[in-house]
Amino acid sequence: MLPLTAVVAAAAAAATSPDLAKYALTDTGSTGGGNTFPGVSRPLGMVKLGPDLYVGSDSYSGYQPTGNFTGFTMLHESGTGGAPKYGVVSQMPVVGKVENPLSDAINDTRAAPDHTEVGYYKARLGSGTVLELAASNKAGMYTYTFPKPNESAGFHVLVDVSHVLSSYRGQGLEQHYLGGNITVHEQGADGYYYTGFGTYDNGWNRAAPWTVYFCGRFDAPATYKTFLGVDKASDKLAEFATEPSYESSSARLGALFSFRQTTVVSRVGVSFISAEKACSNVDGEIPEGTSLRTVRRQTRDAWNSDVFSRVTTTSTNTTELNQLYSALYFMHLLPTNKTGENPLWDSTEPYYDDIFTFWDTVRRALSRGRGRSSEPVLTPTYHEELLRSMVDVWRHQGWVSDARSSFANGAVQGGSNADNVFADAFVKGVGGKLNWHDAFASMVKNAEAVPVNNDDARDPTGSTKEGRSALPDWLAHGFITPKFSRSVSRAVEYSVNDFCLATVAAGLGRLADFAKYFGRSRNWRNHWNPNMTALGFSGFLGPRDVGGFLEQDPLSCGGCYWRDHYYQALPWEYSFNAHHDIAHLVELCGGEERFVERLEMTFEPGVFAGNAPFGHTLFNPGNEPSFATPYLYNYVNRQHLAVKRSRAVAKSYYAPRPDGLPGNSDAGAMESWLLWNMLGLYPLTGQPVFLIGSPWFSDLTIDLGACMKLRVTTTGGAEDAFYVQSLRVNGAPWNKGWLTWQDIFARGGTLEFELGSEPANWTTGPPPPSLASLTSDEARNMLHDIAGLKEHRRACTAPPKTCPT
């Protein structure tokens, strides 16, 4: 339970926060492969309550626009791929006589389109039942309105412990129900509640077995029957009787609760510790007598005060407001804050889970501020807590992985990109209670220790659970041979990872470590094959063995999957991805003009006949390795082309509608790219540098915490007038196409853009720093200058600033 002072403070904040939640469209990206979760959740909430539908293919978030409902479950993820995760702790309304709950009551049709908004979800089923959903952080609420009674109708709620989201991809990633318990308890005259647990494994990260406990209460008199199946796969019943408890390790089980009245409310809590804690969670967060309207309002208030109110504008353009606040919404569904619910070890540290995956989200530039509790640039989602959780996982399990879900590491697609997250936080002054020496030790583990092969069929050449499994080649040769899958794309990522180690080492005064990892950060150059040619250009990142380069088409990556040389992007795309060493890349491409020509070819329609759904360009807005490419023009002072290309991508492939994403959301990565585009900045992860674009709004204010704000204004802007004519930073004229963290975020600031319909040559200053292109001493000195590392080290340990009321 929250203390009274916290409740009063939250109520006061909600009363003063505008209702910006009305602009967030919670079904954005729910169709067309976006895989977003349209159900109900608090910001980073543990419970994500929503529907599961069956269509014969993978329902990653549980939701599908067609198909039959199979349950409404408490745990989901949003915008993930690979294979579905969760879809557990299920309730399903049933109308009519039920002889066999395993075969008769497992699905229902959709009678009308579902309704979803922040904090509320409503489904109309073919049976005539209307189901409304709301959620707190660790509990959910179901309100059932059954159809008018008739002689043959019966009203039931099926609780299926064995329910999971299935996978049909055939990759061995399907989840398994491994056993569980359900116990029905009396709670007064003719009333019952139930508790129990289910144990499951697998999903996209190939998780080891994990257990969730539940506690469900009904507000209406009921009768019940518990049931036990013959085995896990069968719909045959072994028992269906009024037995208070069943436990099983080899068969499906659950309970069917039957009611006489047409309106029934159910409150369900979950916990990863115990059923008693699940009951405490539901009773503390949704006490008996709480209305769905109240829970709905509380969730809306939480989103308004904790997320949406941090970014405000006076704009009245509804479409752009929808995109702005929908992006913020989907950026804050994952990871999941499971603090206090970690069953693996006792710790006073926070615990965050469901990290899908740093390979995806690190490219959205997890830029954070150092305000109260080290708040992020854009939202107060306790980034410091996430970092402390990562370090605590390393302390107890030995590794900070690229991905983690259900208390298990897994799905390392490339490098050890947790290193990038740490470095990004470091150069932006995040600290507080975070032990940076332990954080750096976890990075060194990734950089030096070869993880044990976990025998993942997707990649038999090394571990996909944690670490960098291609380290033997990286350390021996300075490049990665095809002995290891994804050799070229991993070489690029290992270089960036090592640069991030060098950055943190510089700030910690570890000069030998800085020199070592700075040198290794240039190893991507060892994969540059000057003889690879395509479309009139020479030189691309290519596969090589100890005997030399292998033949490779720059416009092909084979299947672009786990066992190929390149992962989820073409050689052409990956050849732009050494963002810490762009000046050297420009030289390799033949100088600034040829670099610009190569970038322009990337966006030329019709030049690529491969698997490219976006006008057959080489640029793919649905793949993270292309995220930064439109902004690389800034490195050669062609800022107007960065604006032209990035604005075209945003306007062409993003829209505030269910199919409004250019591919899988990837846990908010796509939405984050759009948000930064709308703000007019592009952050480079692990560097204190922001490349300048063009804001969409005439005014925008970002609350940075600690009494600081960033105010962005534009004049002369219109739908067809978005080129920057001039810029003033903190009141002074600006001639560079980039900014540093220190310029506008460390203490707040102002950006004043003048926009127009034609390009203007205003970026006459030096290009963005390309640190790995410098000597080691030059790079270290520049890092200290532009990142203010000494000042940041002081800020990391300073007490939070108190703002005047």
Compact overview of the structure:
This protein has 805 residues and is an alpha+beta fold. It has 19 helices and 33 strands. The strands form eight sheets. Strands 4-5-6-7-16-11-10-9-14 form a nine-stranded antiparallel β-sheet.
Describe the structure.
Keywords: Glycosidase, Hydrolase, Signal. Residues 1-15 form the signal peptide. The protein is α+β, with helices and mostly antiparallel strands and 805 residues long. It has two domains: 4-306, Distorted Sandwich (Beta-galactosidase, Chain A, domain 5); 318-790, Alpha/alpha barrel (Glycosyltransferase), CATH 1.50.10. Helix 10 packs antiparallel against helix 11 (511-520). It is globular. The relative contact order is 0.10.
Q: What is this structure's SSE topology?
A:
Layout: H1 4-16, E1 50-54, E2 68-75, E3 88-95, E4 110-117, E5 120-125, E6 130-135, E7 139-145, E8 155-160, E9 176-186, E10 192-202, E11 207-218, E12 223-229, E13 237-241, E14 245-248, E15 253-259, E16 263-271, H2 275-285, H3 292-306, E17 311-312, H4 318-330, E18 336-337, E19 352-353, H5 358-361, H6 383-397, E20 404-405, E21 408-409, H7 418-427, H8 436-448, H9 471-477, H10 487-507, H11 511-520, E22 528-534, E23 537-541, E24 544-545, E25 548-549, H12 571-574, H13 582-588, H14 592-602, H15 639-653, H16 669-679, E26 681-683, E27 689-692, E28 699-705, E29 708-715, E30 723-729, E31 732-734, E32 738-740, H17 741-744, E33 749-756, H18 776-787, H19 789-797
Protein name: Glycosidase
Signal peptide: 1-15
GO biological process, one term: carbohydrate metabolic process
